[in-house]
From TrEMBL, chain A:
Residues 15-241 form the ABC transporter domain. CDD domains: ABC_drug_resistance_like. Keywords: ATP-binding, Nucleotide-binding, Transport. The keyword Transport applies. GO terms for molecular function: ATP binding. The lineage of its organism: Bacteria, Bacillati, Actinomycetota, Actinomycetes, Pseudonocardiales. This is ABC transporter ATP-binding protein. InterPro entries: AAA+_ATPase, ABC_transporter-like_ATP-bd, ABC_transporter-like_CS, P-loop_NTPase. Pfam families: ABC_tran.
Automatic annotation (TrEMBL), chain B:
It comes from the Bacteria. It comes from Lentzea miocenica. The chain crosses the membrane at residues 76-101, 107-132, 153-172, 178-196, 203-221, 233-252. The lineage of its organism: Bacteria, Bacillati, Actinomycetota, Actinomycetes, Pseudonocardiales. Keywords: Membrane, Transcription, Transcription regulation, Transmembrane, Transmembrane helix. This is Zf-HC2 domain-containing protein. The keyword Disulfide bond does not apply. InterPro entries: Anti_sigma_zinc_sf.
Length: 259, 260
């Protein structure tokens, strides 16, 4: 599903990591020897709590420096130029309570160094895409949790990023909103490299073209949702084929029976 | 550019998309249209614009118009961190209270001036409020943007100094006594902040100031030597050292570590 309208790129993969290690704190290697490539499409980042999903996304967002290994984004641009083309929604999305939705997204567009004349229309478009046009001039403190999450998504897509990193974007969304969000993901995935971290396996099944499975900072599996489903058999725990595949791949000898 | 414009009939057939035009003619019309604006104009008759507008007009009425979202706020947040406002107000209140207390106790020459004692640590608080993760909920997003980095930190710091310095100047305290310590502590916060994080740096420096200068001054009830003219070279050296470390560690502010 490559978008043929955009100019050809000079790199093969939007994200290319080789033997990537990221240390958190003094000792813990939260991402340990991960080698992976990601192109356009929606990549679901799965794994148990503490598997290193957030650390990997932070490293991809360039806010954490890799301890060793190489990480090449968009063919290796200079940091500032690269960041103009990244959209990022952190797991604990903080916001300014007294800003309106429009002011907040505008402020983020300014931080992302968008040309001033493009900002108002880009902000309006981002807010419309997440379905908040009717609340655009309400202050953030008056919004519900799900709406705030959508503000977070709006600020991430306001600069039309080539790499979009979303850490737990579906937390706090109700079922109907999650369905709409999956549609948006599919739409964004046609010309963007989207990385979505989640622990909801059904999100992955519905919207992702590619699954990356992490456990204890190591890469356990990368492939399509169908391949993930094929890894599981009837005797593995889970309600859907993908869930069974997930448990099958994570069921190492020492993890058996523990949380 | 060619003088041979296609005839009316040929152009109409081209616009209709007739497939019986000879290949060479089609090619000629196409390449001519690429370079000739008047002929492109002939291609699109007026009614098209009217039809499009008729379709668009009702939609435009439903689309919310983009109001100018308080432009002053946009200009302000380019300098002052969105979280720093209340803290800057607090700093001014603290200065005012200090001046009031000084007036009440009628500082004798050689006695302790409260304004002088708090002056160096005031900008430290402002800087911590602008870049520290404890006070700025959006620290992680900010750190991930292209604008994050030393230039933005310096803008935020300039905004803090633009409030603190005039505030202290208005107290009438001797400029030579507080300006250098004030600047040295500001530079020190950023320099140390690049190494261990701005919040930690602010806590460390305020604690240091309280333990080394304020406590002895209060205990002995006399003005500390730090404000003597003799201390000026020391403050200047500290300021220079701070600026040097900031310059060396300038890339630290593009990462998460500097918010700690």
């Amino acid at each position: 599903m490559r978008n043929t309208v955009t100019a050809p790129t000079t790199y093969a993969w939007e994200i290319e990591a080789r033997d990537l290690r990221v240390r958190v704190g003094r000792r813990r290697m939260a991402v340990d020897d991960v080698t992976l490539t990601m192109g356009r499409g929606v990549h679901g980042l799965l794994g148990p709590n503490g598997a290193g999903k957030t650390t990997l996304i932070r490293a991809l967002a360039t806010v954490l420096r890799p301890t060793s290994g190489t990480l090449t984004l968009l063919g290796g641009l200079e940091l500032r130029e690269l960041r103009r083309r990244i959209g990022y929604l952190p797991q604990d999305f903080g916001y300014y309570r007294r800003f309106t939705v429009r002011e907040f997204v505008e402020y983020m567009a300014w931080l992302k160094e968008m040309p001033g004349r493009d900002v108002p229309s880009a902000v309006q478009r981002a807010i419309e895409r997440v379905g908040l046009a009717d609340r655009a001039d309400d202050r953030l403190k008056t919004l519900s949790g799900g709406m705030l999450r959508r503000v977070g998504i709006a600020q991430a897509i306001v600069n039309d990023p080539a790499v979009l990193l979303l850490d737990e974007p579906t937390a706090g969304l109700d079922p109907a909103q999650r369905l709409r969000f999956r549609d948006l993901l599919t739409e964004l995935g046609t010309d963007t490299c989207v990385v979505v971290s989640t622990h909801l396996v059904e999100d992955v099944a519905a919207a992702c073209t590619d699954v990356v499975l992490l456990a204890d900072g190591k890469l356990v599996f990368q492939g399509t949702p169908t391949q993930l489903a094929a890894a599981g058999t009837a005797e593995h725990a889970g309600d859907s084929p993908i869930e069974r595949g997930y448990t099958a791949l994570l069921a190492g000898p020492k993890r058996h029976g523990s949380w | 550019m060619t003088a041979h414009h296609p005839g009316e009939q040929l152009l109409r057939r081209y616009a209709r998309g007739d497939d019986d035009i000879a290949a060479d003619q089609l090619w000629a019309v196409e390449s001519h249209l690429e370079t000739c604006a008047p002929c492109r104009g002939r291609l699109v008759p007026d009614p098209i614009a009217e039809t499009v507008w008729a379709d668009l007009a009702p939609l435009l009425e439903h689309t919310p118009q983009m109001p100018s979202a308080r432009p002053w706020r946009r200009r302000l947040t380019a300098w002052v961190s969105p979280t720093a406002g209340p803290w800057l107000a607090m700093i001014l209140v603290v200065v005012f209270v200090a001046v009031l207390l000084d007036r009440l106790s009628k500082v004798a020459p050689g006695g302790i001036s409260l304004v002088l004692l708090i002056a160096p640590v005031l900008p430290v608080l402002g800087v911590a409020a602008s870049w520290g993760r404890t006070l700025d909920p959006v620290y992680e997003l900010t750190a991930s943007t292209p604008r994050a980095g030393l230039p933005l930190v310096l803008r935020r710091t300039a905004a803090v100094l633009a409030v603190v310095v005039p505030g202290l100047f208005a107290t009438g305290a001797s400029l030579t006594q507080w300006l250098l310590p004030c600047l040295a502590f500001t530079a020190g916060t950023l320099a140390l902040g690049g190494l261990i994080g701005v919040t930690r740096a602010a806590i460390a420096l305020v604690a240091l100031w309280a333990a080394a200068i304020v406590a002895p001054a209060v205990a002995l009830s006399r003005s500390p030597g730090a404000f003597d003219p003799a201390a000026t070279p020391v403050w200047a050296a500290a300021l220079a050292l701070g600026l040097l470390v900031i310059a060396l560690r300038r890339t630290a502010f593009t990462r998460l570590g500097a918010n700690r």
